[in-house]
Amino acid sequence: MDLSTMRSIVRRDLKDEDAQNYRWSNDELDRHIARAVKEFSEAVPFPAKATLPTAADSRVIDISPLTDRVMVEAVEYPLGIFPPSYQRFALWGHALTLFGEETPDGSDCNVYYGMLHTLDTGGSTIPSRYEDLITTGAAGYAAVEWAGYAINRVSLGGTTTSKEFFAWGNERLKQFRSELKRLGRRNQARIRQLYRQ
């Protein structure tokens, strides 16, 4: 799915499909979609792997090249052995410190990490089974934003329109956040004893 398709689905959920009289501009909906994608990425990041150099006689690895990083899952060092050797580590900003017995010698290590998902005109990294979840969050954010905008404005729907949008949007956000909590990486069991340390 690409951004345009996602935007069309969000518009359908919001009953905002009259192209001559959109309630939300494309930019506004794109902003709400991006916010939902970012929150989803925090719970279910896109898995990535990078090979980074170590510094001789230093346990600190600079991970600043890992753009859009959400979390670090594992560090493999040294490379080329079987089974792989995963190191205990601590993370502070862009500095990853290894606590294994072996001090790096300047050779490469593999960093397994999670990063933000992408959703743009070229496509998406979001698994298709979660696309409806993103639309739920984006529609919720859009409805709540519009409810705030509609306060003290004349509306064909009457004085309760902004309250109804607010309640509808908050219900969608409640569903969105509940599902993110259930899916969240912090709620998943990890079998770390399989890693040789």
Describe this structure in words.
- This protein is an alpha+beta fold and 197 residues long.
- It has two domains: 3-43 and 118-187; 46-115, Elongation Factor Tu (Ef-tu), domain 3.
- Helix content is 37%, strand content 20%.
- It has four helices and eight strands.
- It has helices at 3-13, 26-43, 131-150, 161-183, and strands at residues 46-53, 60-62, 69-76, 89-92, 95-98, 108-115, 119-120, 123-124.
- It has a three-stranded antiparallel beta sheet, with no helix packed on it. Strands 2-5-4 form a three-stranded antiparallel beta sheet, with no helix packed on it.
- A hairpin with a 2-residue loop joins strand 4 (89-92) and strand 5 (95-98).
- Helix 1 (3-13) packs across helix 2 (26-43) and helix 3 (131-150) packs antiparallel against helix 4.
- The longest helix has 23 residues, at 161-183.
- The protein is elongated, with a radius of gyration of 22 Å.
- The two termini are 40 Å apart.
- 23% of the residues are buried.
- Mean pLDDT is 88; it is low at 156-160 and 191-197.
Total strand segments: 8
Q: How many structural domains can be distinguished in the coordinates?
A: 2
Biggest β-sheet: strands ordered side by side in the sheet: 1-6-3
Beta-strand residue percentage: 15-25%
In this structure, how is the largest beta sheet organized? 3 strands, antiparallel
The rounded distance between the terminal residues' Cα atoms is: 40 Å
Strand pairing plus helix content: what structural class?
alpha+beta
The radius of gyration is: 22 Å
Number of helices: 4
Helix content: 25-40%
- The low-pLDDT segments are 156-160, 191-197
Mass-distribution shape: elongated
* Residue-averaged pLDDT: 88
What is the string of helix and strand elements?
HHEEEEEEEEHH
Oligomer: single chain
